[in-house]
Amino acid sequence: MKNKSVTAKGYLLNTAVLAVVLIVFFTLAATLGSTGEFKLILAPSLWQCCYLVILSASLNLVLGFLGQLSLGHCGFMAIGAYAAALLSLAAQRAGIFTDKSGPVFVLVLLGCILIAGILAALVGLLVGIPALRLKGDYLAIITLGFGMIIVNIINNLPFAGQNGLAEGSASASLYKNGLGFGTASKVTYIWVPILLTLLSMTMMFMFIRSKYGRAIRAIRDDEIAASASGINTSFYKVFTFAYSAFFAGMAGALYACANATLSTSSFAFTNGGILNSTFIVVMVVLGGMGSLTGSMVAAVIMFIVNYQIKNGSWVDALPSAVQGIFAYPMLVYAIVLIIVIMFRPKGIFGSYEFSLIHLKRDFLNHRAKAAAQKAEKKGAKVHA
Amino acid sequence: MPETKIPVLETKKLGITFGGLKAVQDFNIQIYEGELVGLIGPNGAGKTTVFNMLTGVYLPTEGSVLLNGEVLNGKKTHQFVAAGVARTFQNIRLFKDMSVIDNVKTAFTKDIQYNMVDALFRTPKFWKTEKELTEKALDLLDIFHLQEKADWLASSLPYGQQRKLEIARALATDMKLLLLDEPAAGMNPTETAELLECINTIRNRFGVAILLIEHDMSLVLNVCQRIQVIDYGQTIAKGLPEEIVKNPKVIAAYLGE
Fold first, then answer.
1. Is residue B2 part of a domain?
2. What share of chain A is helix, strand, coil (3-state, %, to 5)?
3. Which of B119, B158, B170 is opposite residue A376, by nearest beta carbon?
4. What pLDDT, on a 0 to 100 scale, did the predictor assign at position A4?
5. A380 with B87: Cβ contact below 8 A
6. ipTM for the complex shown
7. Closest Cβ opposite residue B119 in set A212, A226, A377
């Protein structure tokens, strides 16, 4: 039985271990910060991992916990990315900050990320109110459509879009103007994605482990029974959708920081890269629908897979026939998805949440409990 | 029966039409506090349709539903629950991938006063509410002897206990009127006897009004104080159990002429 003392102890233990890991990491970062490996590979990878973790966990709220298939998650990310980029650009032009240092810049940076999230949440609200009246395939189609519409609208806005950011130039340079970070600043501001990921994950956990989490899991399991238990299903659905979009927006803002240029094509559904809504769905399914820790692990795995396909030297060593597959990363993700669905449909974690305090108990009790439940169920069936 | 008292549930000429089909017509019923009324009829008579109208799933095309004198027509299901109507389903509808205790805690919608800020910052109010909910849920589960299985998955419970959990969840909504849709369906005699005991416990402990749909006649005749019979959407008889079993119309509806 869960009670407050165990839960509180669990929070303390997890926080303590996390704090130790972070201290070790930042000490290492401080000493290795100037070396090539860290600066050129590890730090940028960490930025990418962080926004992928936020993205997959936030989609898991809708897909795994609320049980609604949304294929437009990248649209919210695009909104966040462009909002943060445009805001920081405006701030720079207004002379609020001149170079990417100092407390004022940090404030602008965090402010931009927050506003990006809020904007994405507002659009999520607007999209969610009509879209969530539909279910299943229809919802998937309409969210897919909304994702495309959002990207197209941004594309055609005079002040954003393909050309807007650098006033006439197609390769809108965020790096020179606004909040785009180069490799050196990525190392300096490595705490930003880490802080945001921690905050976002905490916020999502607090959401899931409360009446909100119970309500949306109830809606996932049986919507009619949920409303017959007094749950205002439309409210919880739209709220969760907007809440999830909030994090997608912040992830988008991080993406804008991590990239020198912004282009709507990187958020388009047809994009073969790491950023499209199906890729996020693959991450969620791989990690386990209904497990936030699973989403985190899956995001890192998928990042490594993607990185290896694109940069790994081992790919060149493969026979050319096999190498051909890797020219189409989307194909690899599709194969990953099919393998997961065939051999472990609930994903790596299922609905299990990793927690240090429950580690021993879970592994010891899990088998015994499953066996007992199976035996009783079997017995009851025979009895009936 | 005290006629001056306001009935917990009253329907006036309730009816619904699907296209050209008059599924239920002119359905009138009054249930008073602490009463257990049976609603019986052959398959397809419209019993579950009545339940769906009483819980806001279907919008009646005519007539009205009154709960303690308050008109509930046109409200949504969760508003019916807020007003005090709870139900179970003919085919069990549990939150399968949630623990037994979470199934019950989900339904305490009226008792949860904390908001998003409390949840995010884990305020004392949050802890207090959650602790109270757990205690209340365990109390409820205790009535149905489910306390030891509180952290099981709902889907791993045997059939009879799933039925009981569904009733426990309905009770958690703090209702005035409980609608039970064929609670004994698919149960063996032992389980039915246990269910009978449960229903009696509920009446004694909560003093709620219950409307029961059931095919198991021994159960219906045993527990119901009054019975209403419908066939082809129309009420063909209502009265005391002993009157109903002798009613020629009822016998004709069940056995044919």
1. no
2. 75, 0, 25
3. B158
4. 53
5. no
6. 0.91
7. A212
